């Protein structure tokens, strides 16, 4: 393993940090990882990925990453990169505690002239108002003792084409020198364009705007789904028709909710920061309200389906098929399925679950056992295994109603089997 390029410490070895650590190692850097999870540390040091992802499964065994819970490892490194989560609490208020704790670890173990990069998603102003003051309080000055940059993470779990190796990135810094150092580093490890922003605040804003854009467009089609259900129009067909226009239209599709570590979280960071400066993001708040309503709306569709059969939701065994937030990944963060389950239980339903990617969180360990018990089904995650299901399997196990939360099943074939089918906007 080459080490002449320098030493890098990745703080947080999750969906963002671990692929970055592997990519740095593949590009010839000596890589250390700071992580609190002892089981994860053990796996990584054994060359096994704790995350089931193709890039990691293929490349982690090829490199030597030293994972540890000892923050003193930062002292050995030329570059420290913060990749910890930035969650929201139950009231949708941003929680910067993980970032603050990671930065404090860097400050307590800072190496002279170290480049510190924040990859965690943060709202505009965090580097200036939260991160830099932690260094200043310890007596460290940007441009004199260290350099700081922000390069917002861009990761799309489960994507076969776009990963940490080839997604373009943006960088902002406090100083010209810091911007140059950070750009040089990312240009070395990533085979994609690196755009330099005029300020660190601009770089912070990029990720928030990207995901707010998606959230707004998803909210638009989710609201259309509710409307078109009343109008007896298949929204999926309409969107496909709109997509035939070769310009000025970007197709988004409705579903039972928005999950993951970015889209349902990032808009709140902008909403709260703007509020502190005296601006009210009404549009963003409405989009969040619409998307947050979709799990409950999905349960309402199940109630409607069962009403047609003169069956009460209370006491009925409803199977939730898929509990991860996204197809073909084992990630439960902000998953709409978890909210669907809560709403079903609140209505008195007997809830069972099955997800082949997160069996440890599933009540049923096989699809057969799941189907044997389910009177009705909500498909909440469009795993490839579910998309390939022959509709006749539902007839075989006497499933009475299906709510297709991802619009990935064949409604015509299911209805022909005398099973009540409801999709999102179809």
What report would you give on this structure?
With 426 residues, the chain is of the alpha/beta class. The chain folds into 2 domains: 7-198, 3-Layer(aba) Sandwich (Rossmann fold); 200-426, NAD(P)-binding Rossmann-like Domain (Rossmann fold). Helix content is 41%, strand content 14%. The chain is built from 15 helices and 13 strands. The chain has helices at 17-26, 38-45, 54-59, 97-108, 126-137, 176-189, 200-231, 235-242, 266-276, 282-308, 336-346, 367-373, 384-387, 392-396, 411-416, and strands at 7-11, 30-34, 65-68, 79-82, 114-118, 146-150, 169-173, 194-196, 317-321, 350-354, 376-379, 401-404, 420-423. Strands 3-2-1-4-5-6-7-8 form an 8-stranded mixed β-sheet, sandwiched between helices. The longest helix is centred in the middle third of the chain and has 32 residues, at 200-231. The radius of gyration is 24 Å and the shape is elongated.
How much of the residues is beta strand, in percent? 5-15%
Give the CA-CA distance, first to last residue.
Answer: 55 Å
CATH class of the largest domain: Alpha Beta
The order of strands across the largest sheet is: 3-2-1-4-5-6-7-8
Mean pLDDT: 95
Q: How many domains make up the 3D coordinates?
A: 2
> What's the Cα radius of gyration?
24 Å
CATH topology of the largest domain: Rossmann fold
Helix content: 40-55%
């Amino acid at each position: 393993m080459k080490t002449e390029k320098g030493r890098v410490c990745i703080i947080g070895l999750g969906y963002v940090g671990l692929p970055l650590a592997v990519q740095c190692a593949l590009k010839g850097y000596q890589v250390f990882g700071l992580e609190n999870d002892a089981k994860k540390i053990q796996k990584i040091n054994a060359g096994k990925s704790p995350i089931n992802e193709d890039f990691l499964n293929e490349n982690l065994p090829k490199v030597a990453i030293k994972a540890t819970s000892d923050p003193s490892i930062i002292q050995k490194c030329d570059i420290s990169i913060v990749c910890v989560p930035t969650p929201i609490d139950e009231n949708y208020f941003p929680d910067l505690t993980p970032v603050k704790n990671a930065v404090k670890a860097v400050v307590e173990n800072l190496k002279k002239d170290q480049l510190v990069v924040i990859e965690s998603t943060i709202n505009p102003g965090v580097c200036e108002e939260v991160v830099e003051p932690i260094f200043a309080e310890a007596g460290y000055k940007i441009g004199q003792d260290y350099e700081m940059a922000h390069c917002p993470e861009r990761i799309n779990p489960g994507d076969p084409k776009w990963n940490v190796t080839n997604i373009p990135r943006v960088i902002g810094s406090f100083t010209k020198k810091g911007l140059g150092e950070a750009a040089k580093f990312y240009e070395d490890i990533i085979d994609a364009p690196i755009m330099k922003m005029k300020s660190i605040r601009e770089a912070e804003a990029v990720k928030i705007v990207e995901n707010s854009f998606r959230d707004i467009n998803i909210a638009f089609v989710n609201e259309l789904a509710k409307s078109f259900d009343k109008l007896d129009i298949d929204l999926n067909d309409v969107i496909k028709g709109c997509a035939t226009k070769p310009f000025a239209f970007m197709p988004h599709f409705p579903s039972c909710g928005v999950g993951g570590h970015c889209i349902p979280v990032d808009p709140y960071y902008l909403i709260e920061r703007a509020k502190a400066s005296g601006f009210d993001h009404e549009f963003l708040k409405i989009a969040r309200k619409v998307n947050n309503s979709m799990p409950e709306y999905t349960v309402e569709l199940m109630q409607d389906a069962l009403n047609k059969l003169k069956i009460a939701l209370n006491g009925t065994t409803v199977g939730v098929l898929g509990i991860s937030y996204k197809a073909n990944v084992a990630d439960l963060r902000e998953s709409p399925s978890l909210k669907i389950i809560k709403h079903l239980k609140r209505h008195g339903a007997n809830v069972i679950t099955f997800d082949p990617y997160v069996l440890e969180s599933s009540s049923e360990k096989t699809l057969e056992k799941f189907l044997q018990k389910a009177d009705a089904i909500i498909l909440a995650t469009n795993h490839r295994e579910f998309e390939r299901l022959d509709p006749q399997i539902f007839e075989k196990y006497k499933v009475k109603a299906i709510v297709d939360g991802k619009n990935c099943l064949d409604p015509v074939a299911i209805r022909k089997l005398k099973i009540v089918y409801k999709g999102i906007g179809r």
